[in-house]
């Protein structure tokens, strides 16, 4: 096997990269990752320096790859390690630069070590990990962080001795619902009544909803979607790293995999949400509004997504990171995982002890949150072991 490292994914033919990715996860597609690079959403300005690792066989076929970034900050990761960085600083050691195997600004579960099928899949994974560690050592990185791993990668990285970190998101599962009302029938009466009242408030405010795919939106609608995206970051003193050019490019290259939801009042746009979809999942990513309407956020970001999944036969809906308020709306606490390699043996022991205690607390937290499920027993969905819970 031959190893190559590239700082420009354009150097890899899209068909070769996408053959490893498949249709499951839109954020791993060549089109998405190259658009980030084309429009400087990653790079020196934001501290995400691409060092993508490629494995070819002796016929020059791409059989393994991983999206890898060297970072000088922890922004846009959603697995928070600022306390680790602070501990390094207090010990007089540099925490940055570090390495991240992840999709920038995207807390969505998926494969991170991309390998072709067949007899060499395991050896290719081992080669990718070995290359990552060797690169980290040569670049004097403090650590490697593989974020939001799927079941296969989580199990492999744990077997290889990396430290696992348990997190929690709130995901929706389609249990064969015929329509939105059929979904609500699985709720207990009080929660069902509350949700219907929220949807009714939006209708009573004379707000009209439009759902369309990215390639169906015109230039003005994409400018509007980007304006809503920026507005949320500006209200919260955040940094809107994704520019209009990025969104316009993925609209051209990934149009059918983008699902836009707009809200209009008296003919004027007042809110919008940007989602991406894979073969079996919808991923809610960004939203914004310019006017406040009761329950509009829930309608735009959750209920329209659920309805879309039911209508299009998608099995899962990941609406983004955090948010206990999602539970009462049918999104149940779901384990997420990350895996960590720590270069310094002393800090590895300290972090391992921290993770052991944090994992116990997180499991208790997830189990407690399940008591708030809106679903009638015994119809309530359970934890989704095939979505990343390997224990």
Descriptors:
391 residues, alpha+beta, Aminopeptidase, 2 domains, eleven-stranded mixed beta sheet, four-stranded antiparallel beta sheet, 11 helices, 15 strands, 37% helix, globular, disordered C terminus
Strands, helices and their partners?
Elements: E1 2-6, H1 14-21, H2 30-38, E2 48-50, E3 52-56, E4 62-66, E5 68-71, H3 82-90, E6 98-101, E7 114-115, H4 121-138, E8 143-147, H5 151-159, E9 163-173, H6 180-184, H7 189-204, E10 207-213, H8 219-235, H9 244-253, E11 258-265, E12 268-277, E13 281-289, H10 296-312, E14 316-318, E15 332-342, H11 345-370
Parallel strand pairs: 6-8, 13-14
Antiparallel strand pairs: 1-3, 2-5, 3-4, 4-7, 5-6, 8-15, 9-14, 9-15, 10-11, 11-12, 12-13
Helix pairs in contact: 2-9, 7-10, 8-9
Description of the structure:
- With 391 residues, the chain is α+β, with helices and mostly antiparallel strands.
- It folds into two domains: 2-168 and 334-387, Gcn5-related N-acetyltransferase (GNAT) (Aminopeptidase); 175-314, Gcn5-related N-acetyltransferase (GNAT) (Aminopeptidase).
- It is built from eleven helices and 15 strands.
- Residues 383-391 have low confidence and may be disordered.
């Amino acid at each position: 096997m031959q190893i190559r490292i590239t700082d420009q994914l354009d150097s890899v033919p899209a068909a070769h990269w996408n053959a490893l990715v498949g249709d499951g996860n839109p954020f791993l597609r060549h089109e998405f990752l190259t658009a980030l690079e084309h429009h400087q959403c990653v790079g020196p300005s934001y501290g995400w320096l691409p060092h993508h690792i490629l494995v070819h066989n002796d016929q020059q076929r791409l059989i393994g790859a991983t999206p890898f970034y060297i970072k000088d900050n922890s922004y846009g990761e959603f697995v928070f390690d600022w306390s680790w960085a602070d501990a390094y600083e207090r010990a007089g050691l540099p925490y940055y630069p570090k390495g991240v195997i992840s999709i920038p600004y995207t807390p969505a579960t998926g494969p991170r070590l991309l390998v072709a099928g067949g007899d060499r899949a395991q050896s290719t994974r081992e080669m990718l990990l070995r290359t990552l560690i060797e690169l980290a050592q040569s670049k004097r990185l403090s650590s490697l962080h593989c974020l939001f791993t799927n079941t296969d990668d989580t199990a492999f990285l744990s077997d290889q001795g990396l430290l696992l970190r348990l997190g929690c998101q709130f995901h929706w599962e389609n249990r064969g619902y015929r329509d939105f009302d059929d979904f609500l029938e699985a709720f207990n009466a009080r929660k069902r009544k509350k949700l219907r009242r929220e949807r009714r408030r939006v209708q009573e405010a004379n707000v009209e909803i439009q759902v369309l795919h990215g390639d169906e939106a015109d230039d003005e609608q994409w400018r509007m979607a980007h304006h809503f995206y920026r507005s949320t970051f500006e209200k919260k003193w955040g940094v809107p790293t994704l520019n209009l050019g990025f969104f316009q490019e993925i609209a051209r290259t990934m149009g059918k995999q983008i699902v836009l939801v707009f809200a209009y009042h008296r003919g004027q746009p007042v809110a919008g949400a940007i989602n991406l979809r894979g073969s079996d999942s919808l991923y809610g990513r960004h939203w914004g509004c310019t006017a406040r309407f009761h329950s509009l956020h829930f309608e735009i970001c959750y209920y329209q997504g659920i309805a879309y999944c039911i209508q299009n036969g998608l099995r899962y809906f990941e609406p983004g990171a955090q948010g206990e308020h999602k539970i009462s709306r049918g999104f149940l606490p779901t384990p997420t995982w990350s895996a960590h390699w720590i270069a310094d043996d002393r800090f590895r022991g300290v972090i391992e002890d921290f993770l052991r205690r944090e994992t116990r607390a997180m499991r208790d937290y997830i189990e407690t949150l399940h008591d708030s499920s809106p679903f009638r027993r015994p119809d309530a969905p359970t934890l989704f072991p095939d979505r990343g819970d390997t224990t």
